Amino acid sequence: TVHYFSNGHKGYPKERLEVFCEGKIVSCDNFRRTTGYGVKVKCKTRTQDKGHAVGVLAFLKSVKDGGEWPIPLEEILEVSRETVRLAEAFQR
Questions:
Q1: SS3 label, residue 27
Q2: pLDDT, one tens digit for every residue, the chain (92 residues)
């Protein structure tokens, strides 16, 4: 489940990922703090790494070298089709 909200409290993490499996939970706040419940996971990072730099470099390399795209074209088209389908469904 993915939720996008803009009306929350500023003190709450802007981005939060939670994984639930077999009675265990791992949560990651703002890509900086990861905590496990029922499993030993705890870490903090000094910076946020959402992968933007790596993604841009992979794209530029594929353009320069003519290699494979970082994201296959069919996957990009599939996401685009679903986005249009959802937008149309919400306008009804």
A1: strand
A2: 778 888 889 898 888 899 999 999 999 988 888 999 999 888 888 777 778 889 899 999 999 999 888 899 999 999 999 999 988 988 87
Tokens of 65: 């070298």
Structure tokens belonging to residue 43: 């870490």
Q: Are residues 49 and 31 in contact, defined by beta-carbon separation less than 8 angstroms? A: yes
Strand order in the sheet with 33-37: 16-21, 24-29, 33-37, 42-44
For the entire predicted model, the pTM comes to: 0.51
Q: How far apart are CA 65 and CA 11, in angstroms?
A: 44
Position of tokens 């530029």?
60
Do residues 29 and 15 make contact, with C-beta atoms less than 8 angstroms apart?
yes
